[in-house]
């Protein structure tokens, strides 16, 4: 879908006006009229489609296509992640990890520790997968440590998101590396150099401000026996190694697929098919959930009835999240199909600014228009590919990072990740803008600054 040519359905002015009005309607419905985000996004998406020039059939098709694609991808991942997270909590595995992190890190160091955890988990994963895996740990660490939720959550999210845009073998940078013909090793080295200060600024440093701007309580999710005041000394729990293995298993599976795509892209055979299959996000999480039954449930002496109750009880709390994320994906698809992203891209390409800044701006505008970091990366890399062919290898690597930085800018109401973060952390709409949206902007701007500084050196 992303690679197909999009024909704008109306004039440039009409498309931009429809998008702006749509954004405003969604925000007003949610913040002023207190309409549920799912309903607000549905009204906004259909309104933008009709206002941009789509007929009723096109608008409905675009909406249902986006909703179905998001639920079939991110929705399944959220469901599997929720089941895994509940099992991690109920078995005592989350307790074991949290106790270890809290015991070995002072309150002052915990935000830094969580930033590293987010970066490691986020390296081969899409953001949504890393979030659903780590949300039980984020919530329990905040609850046990006594620190505010934002002091723990923001550094973790910064690590996850920075990896999404800057460091291969994450799928985002790999797309740009392939499209631009960049050197993987050079891009990886530059990406790590840029990512470290980016995570520090957007994570532990910014979390101090986020905690003041959004003093929300820790959500009443993943409540464990220890949180209920029960004596868990005699209660069997999985070991720290088993719990950590269960969390890292999908990381290893997905990283294996990503590395194989780089090391042996033209390889063929049963082993390549097997690696690709188990490294697919849905399959990796499914394997992780099954493995967790044995790694976490068996050591905790959970019988079949207990396991069934744990898995069943994990799904009702996320029903609202699934609908909101699906509607966000539908809104994104309407914006794509109307051609708004294409209109913005054409205008930027005629501006004559520097190559690195141009790549960043194109990715930023497509990201704002479509809500998708992946589509922003694909679009910007495709448009910049002819220019990249004339650049030296180090600058092509920096162009990959500039595009990656731009692809995460200004997450807002058309981004499924925006609603995922909002619902999991329990923030209202203004608080989500002041924390998550600002965090994404910081990652994007600091990442660009790092790229431009490296360009002066190399």
UniProtKB/TrEMBL annotation:
Extract one GO molecular function annotation from the record. Answer: gluconate transmembrane transporter activity
Subcellular location(s) per record? Cell membrane
Q: Which UniProt keywords apply?
A: Cell membrane, Membrane, Transmembrane, Transmembrane helix, Transport
The protein's superkingdom reads Bacteria
Primary location group? membrane
What GO CC terms are in its UniProt record? plasma membrane
**Mind telling me which residue stretches traverse the membrane in this protein?**
12-32, 38-54, 66-89, 109-142, 149-167, 187-206, 240-263, 283-302, 314-331, 397-421, 433-454
User: Membrane topology per the record?
Assistant: Multi-pass membrane protein
Q: NCBIfam families this protein is in? A: gntP
**Family, per the entry?**
Belongs to the GntP permease family.
- Alphabetized PANTHER family for the sequence: GNT FAMILY GLUCONATE TRANSPORTER, HIGH-AFFINITY GLUCONATE TRANSPORTER
Q: What is this protein's record name?
A: Gluconate transporter
């Amino acid at each position: 879908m992303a690679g197909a040519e999009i024909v704008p359905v109306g004039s440039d002015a009409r498309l931009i006006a429809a998008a702006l009005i749509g954004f405003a309607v969604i925000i007003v419905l949610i913040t002023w009229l207190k309409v549920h985000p799912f309903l607000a996004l549905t009204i906004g998406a259909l309104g933008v489609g009709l206002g941009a020039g789509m007929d009723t059939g096109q608008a409905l098709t675009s909406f249902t296509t986006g909703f179905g694609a998001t639920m079939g991808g991110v929705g399944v991942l959220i469901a599997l992640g929720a089941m895994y997270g509940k099992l991690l909590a109920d078995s005592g595995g989350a307790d074991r990890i949290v106790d270890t992190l809290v015991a070995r890190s002072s309150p002052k160091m915990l935000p830094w520790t969580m930033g590293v955890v987010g970066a490691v988990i986020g390296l081969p994963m899409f953001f949504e997968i890393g979030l659903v895996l780590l949300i039980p740990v984020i919530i329990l660490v905040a609850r046990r440590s006594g620190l505010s939720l934002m002091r723990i959550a923001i550094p973790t999210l910064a690590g996850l998101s920075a990896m999404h845009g800057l460091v291969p073998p994450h799928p985002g940078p790999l797309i740009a590396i392939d499209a631009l013909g960049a050197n993987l090793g050079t891009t990886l080295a530059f990406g790590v150099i840029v990512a470290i200060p980016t995570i520090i600024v957007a994570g532990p440093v910014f979390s101090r401000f986020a905690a003041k701007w959004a003093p929300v309580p820790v959500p009443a999710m993943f409540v464990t026996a220890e949180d209920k005041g029960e004596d868990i000394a005699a209660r069997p729990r999985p070991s720290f190694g088993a719990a950590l293995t269960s969390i890292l298993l999908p990381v290893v599976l997905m990283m294996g697929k990503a590395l194989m795509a780089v090391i042996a892209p033209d390889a063929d055979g049963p082993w390549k098919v097997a690696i690709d299959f188990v490294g697919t996000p849905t399959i990796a999480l499914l394997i992780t959930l099954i493995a967790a039954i044995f790694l976490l449930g068996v050591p905790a002496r959970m019988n079949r009835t207990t396991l069934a109750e744990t898995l069943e009880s994990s799904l009702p709390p996320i029903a609202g999240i699934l609908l909101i994320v699906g509607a966000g994906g539908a809104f994104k698809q309407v914006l794509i199909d109307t051609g708004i992203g294409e209109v913005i891209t054409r205008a930027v390409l005629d501006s004559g600014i520097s190559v690195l800044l141009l790549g960043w701006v194109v990715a930023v505008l497509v990201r704002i228009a479509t809500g998708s970091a992946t589509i922003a990366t694909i679009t910007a890399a495709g448009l910049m590919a002819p220019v990249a062919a004339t650049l030296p290898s180090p600058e092509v690597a920096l162009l990959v990072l500039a595009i990656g930085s731009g692809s995460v800018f200004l997450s807002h109401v058309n981004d499924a990740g925006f609603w995922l973060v909002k619902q999991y952390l329990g923030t209202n709409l203004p608080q989500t803008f002041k924390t998550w949206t600002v965090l994404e902007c910081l990652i994007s701007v600091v990442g660009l600054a790092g790229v431009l500084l490296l360009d002066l050196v190399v």
